[in-house]
Amino acid sequence: MKNLILTAGVLFCTIPVWAQSHTKNAFIEIERNNNQFVYCCGNTGTLIDSTNLMEFISDYDYNILPFPGEWAFQDVLSINDMSYNIEDHSVCEGGTGDDLIAIVNGRTQQPQGTYSTIYKATVSGLSTDSTYTVCGFLKNLPQGLYDVLPSVRYTFTDATGYSSWQTVSTDPNDPCDWQRYSVDFRPTNSTVTMEFQIREDGIGDGNDLAIDDFSLNYAQNYNVQTTIESQTVNSDHSIVTGSINSLSISDDVLPDSACKYIWLVAESTNVSATLYYPDLSNIMVGDNDPSNNSTADWGLTTTFPGYNGGVTNGIFENSKLYMVLLYVYNCDCSPNDFTFQYVYNLGKQDEDIKIMKPEFSEKTKKDLESEIKQILKNGNSQTLDKKNVENTSLKVYPNPSKNVFNVDLKAYEGESEIRILDSSGRIVEMFQTEEPSLEIDWSRHPNGVYMLQVTQGGNTSIQRLLKTD
């Protein structure tokens, strides 16, 4: 197996404080397994073997007795001699550990928004087809009455992965109360730069931090699965049941206790590999977090109460296409993942129900996940990003039509790109125009549903076209 290469050393390494050796371009052992260290998710190895590495990039200086803006390696006994109560994380988890912990004395009372990078390393030899987890265990070290709790984050260059600021708050009386902090990332290049940063604008004293068992590993695989069932109620609507894994509540289990999830249901106009989210409307999201007032209360098995005005069960109108999606995120040991299916019911009998699970490209999945994250920020809404939803200001007449569609483009100044797609997402026609109106002769095309897509200045409007006899 090809070794990874660390071009800047690792701050959270396990070396004595008196070590002075510096190593450049050090090779990193993959999966250094032993019983000494216990990393995230029970791993006993790490893709970064940080032993005997001292060189790294940091805004903080090394000092065996660190002042604000400095860091050091200290043994557990020395730390506890300063009136702290701390134990080596690996020892807490049943390993032997090495009795050494990184101590960071963070600055405080700096201008609003100030932060520093206390660790920066560049790792090469990564695979763009893999997801990785960078992880460390943190413990705040209280300082007096006006103690500032450390706030930290990871950032990445040449990778998709980002974490918001996380506050470190552990029990000072419990030596083994370490706070795990991990982030998944996926390289966009074989070389990735990782940074660990600390905020410095807190008002007060403190901002002191202990760090142990830093690691880089492959993220554990998890593929979320759902079962969707629809039952005809009458000629008007159906009831849809969604469940993680099977329909039985006995397997309503997430990968670990830290995981969060949301269900998302929405109306759609087609199942397309290229036109997957722009036509979503009447969106509603739900989870099992009672403190989240912006989402409905939906369990891992649910009939989506509240959707479309339904009380006990959501209302899914017949002869309409709906997307039902489950997104699992924020897990300790698994990357974010989602799955979705489309439900369509003609409304005559249960045999008319179609449940479809399309296969999309990796790029499409990433784009859709970005939209899901936007919904997580915004809570429930009736439409997705306005620049990507069906736009009623885009006027088409007659519609349905046997041959010709007239498109009013007066609201669009300048050049617009016009695309017309069939129900599979294939582009049938594409051209540019600056005219205020457009006549589309569709007589030579077969009957069916098409999508008119008008793009101008990065904004896209969508309108359905129905060609009939």
Notes on the protein architecture:
The strands form seven sheets. The protein has a seven-stranded mixed beta sheet. It has three helices and 32 strands. It has helices spanning 76-80, 89-92, 362-378; strands at 4-6, 26-28, 61-62, 70-75, 100-105, 115-124, 132-140, 147-148, 151-157, 159-160, 166-167, 179-187, 192-199, 205-206, 208-218, 226-232, 237-244, 260-268, 281-287, 296-297, 301-302, 316-317, 321-329, 337-345, 353-356, 395-397, 404-408, 416-421, 427-433, 437-441, 448-456, 459-467. The protein folds into three domains: 4-218, Jelly Rolls (Sandwich), CATH 2.60.120; 226-388, no CATH class; 395-467, Sandwich (Immunoglobulin-like). With 469 residues, the protein is mainly beta.
The CATH architecture classification of the largest domain is: Sandwich
How many H/I helical runs? Answer: 3
Find the CATH topology of the largest domain: Jelly Rolls
CA-atom Rg in angstroms: 27 Å
- Name of the CATH first level of the largest domain: Mainly Beta
- Number of structural units classed as domains: 3
What structural class should be given to the helix and strand makeup? Answer: mainly beta
What percent strand? 35-45%
Number of strands: 32
Q: What does the largest sheet look like?
A: 7 strands, mixed
Helix content: under 10%
| Through-space gap between termini | 62 Å
Strand order of the largest sheet: 3-4-5-15-7-12-10
User: What is the 3D shape?
Assistant: elongated
Extract low-pLDDT stretches. 1-33, 50-55, 271-278, 380-392
